[in-house]
Structure formats: C-alpha cells, structure tokens
Amino acid sequence: MTMNQPVAFLPDLRLALRLIIRSRVVLIAVIVGSILCGVAWLAGQFSPRQPATVALDVGLSFIRVVLPTLALLQIQDLVAREVERRLVLTSLTYPHSRSEFLLARFGAVVLVALVTCLFFSALLAGAVSWVASVYPQATNVSLGPAFVFTSVLVWFDVTVVVAFGLVLATVATTPHLVFVGGIGFMIIARSASTIIQLLETDRDVVRGAEWYHQGLQWVQWIVPDLAMLDVRPAALYNKLEFIGPSPWILMAMPTAYVVVLLVIACAGFSRRRFD
User: What is the pTM of this model?
Assistant: First the structure.
C-alpha cells in the first residue's frame, strides 16, 4: 500500500457524504427524531407502571428498526443505483481503486449512521427524562454509561447490517435487493439465536421442534448473533450486570464480521464487469 492511498480515500469519503446530505438526510433525521419523541412519550403515557422504563424500551426498539432501514437505503442509493444507472463508470475513471470507491461509500454511510444514532439517542434521553420527571417511579432508568453503551452497540448492529447490504450491492442486478436482503438478514441475525434457545428449552412449542432446531444450527456459523448486542436491560433497570459478556467481546464480534464482509465486497466488486 502506498502513502497516496489513504489521501485518495478522503476525497471519495467527502463526495459520498455530500451525496448523502443532498438526499435530505438532515430533514429526514429531524422528522424521524420528532416521531421518536412522540412514540416514546405516548408509550410512557399509556403505561400505568414504570412509564420511563416503557418509554425508553419503546424508543430503543424504534431506533433499532429505523436506523438500519435508513442506512440500507443510503447504501442502496450510493452503490446499487450507481451501478444500475451506469454512473459508476464515471466514478471509476478517477484515480482510485474500486476498493477505495466502495469503502468510501461504506464509511460515509456508517459515519452518518453514527451521527444519526447519537442524535436519536439524545432526543430519546430528553423524552425519557421528561417522562421520568412527570411520573416518578421506584426504579429509575439509566441515562448514563449503560444507556451510552447500549446506543453504541446499536450502531455496531447497524454497521454489520450495512456491511451485508454492501456485499449485496456489489452483486445485485436490481437495487431493491439491497434493501430487501438487508432487512431479511437483520431479522434473521437478531432472532436466530433466540429461536434456537427457545427450541432447546421447550421442545413442545412447535411441532417438529427437533427438525427446526437442526435446520437452524448451521445459521449460527454463518450469521452473527446480533441479539447479543441488545443490552437494553442495563439501561432499563439501571444495572450494568445485565450487559453480560465483556464490552470488548461484544464489540469485537461485529467488528470481525464487518471486516470479513468488507473483504468479500471489495473482492467481488473488483472482479465485477460493467458491460
């Protein structure tokens, strides 16, 4: 790797960020953030007990659904749609490698996702604080380190989903495959381990539980366990022991998986022909 490669990456990153900003991401974030505050506030209003806990729980669920959805739409527009419209041919005429082009798009999306995640988390913390001040409860929620770490893991979750969407964008013949496939991957990665654990503890929950259990075993070797990144009980009940494994282990798993997916995406994109 030459010394000019890191420098060449920065203009691509800035260009990708400008393209995202031009897609009205700021306006979308403000609108979705307002909806987030309203949803959290209403959830607290309809809860007869522990309103702040319910508001925080519903708000985190909202963020975990909306944030990867927005990120997948961005990676779809930046990569898959450029390939479909043949605009990528113009982009690749600049003095940079295909890997730099791809990684710049990925870096821009995850950077915007980080800023958006922090913005949504700040709005949610404000809404929950207001609910907690109006309706005091015996067990207070944590809006400190536990909440911050929960939000960070939400971003790691989104990063894995975006990396998978990037792999799809490098091979897809239709842009919609990126969004549909990314959402499907997210659902499977978040629910597979929970379903397997349920089948192990309660074999009567469904007919042919043993058959389903064996069929899902191989999924654990291919799909990451994104369910373990959901450590919201630590913030909901103000107890750090609910985080479970070491925080470094929780961050190492998605990081390793993202690296593998980026290598696959770059290798596939470098060999793709745009005839």
Answer: 0.86
Say which amino acid occupies 117: C
C-alpha Rg value of the chain to the nearest Å: 21
Domain boundaries, the chain: 4-271
- Is 160 within 8 Å of 113 (Cβ atoms)? no
Please say whether the beta carbons of 104 and 9 come within 8 A: yes
pLDDT for 169-203, tens place per residue? Answer: 888 878 788 999 999 999 988 887 776 666 656 55
Choose among 45, 35, 226: nearest CA to 124: 35
Burial class (CB in 10 A: 0-12, 13-18, 19+), 240: middle
